[in-house]
Amino acid sequence: MSTSASAGLGVLLKDASTAVIAEVLSITGPGITQPTIDVTHMESTFTETITAGFTDYGEVQIEGNLLPTNATHNNSTGLMADIVAETVQAYTLQYSDSGTTTASFSALVVAFSTAAAVGDKLSFSATLRITTAVTWA
Question: 5, 27, 128, 131: which sits with the fewest CB atoms below 10 Å from its CB?
Fold first, then answer.
């Protein structure tokens, strides 16, 4: 049986300058949730009445090989610099499907951590909190 599924290999995360965030190994997100607000009142007819709250596009989590001097990782122009400066930046996820689907959004880097262990690679993880709607194209 054939499939139209695409491999995760080749998905790219680009920053506002369209630089590819280097050596990303995994990407989770974006997602979307629609919270509700209970507006039931004394004249409601025995059913809960709800309305939509603010749409939440959540976060994008990434993990990758840490390149401390790379322009997309370092503390002067990269993800480390963005978290310290509290910079909201435009990002684009470019998917690996044949139509090259993209998801564009602005986000604030809210977490950045590194890891190093004997016999293993230097790695990083980062969390981008989405601050706008995600535009799919």
Answer: 5
Residue 1: inside a domain:
no
Q: Is residue 24 part of a domain?
A: yes
Q: What's the average model confidence in pLDDT over 84-89?
A: 94
The whole-model pTM stands at 0.86
3-state SS track over the chain: CCCCCCCCCCCEEECCCCCECCCEEEEECCCCECCEEECCCCCCCCCCCEEECCCECCEEEEEEECCCCCCCCCCCCCHHHHHHHCCEEEEEEECCCCCCCEEEEEEEEEEEEEECCCCCCCEEEEEEEECCCCEEC
Give the span between the Cα atoms of 55 and 24, in whole angstroms: 28
pLDDT tens by residue, 42-63: 888 878 889 999 999 999 999 9
CATH number at residue 20: 4.10.410
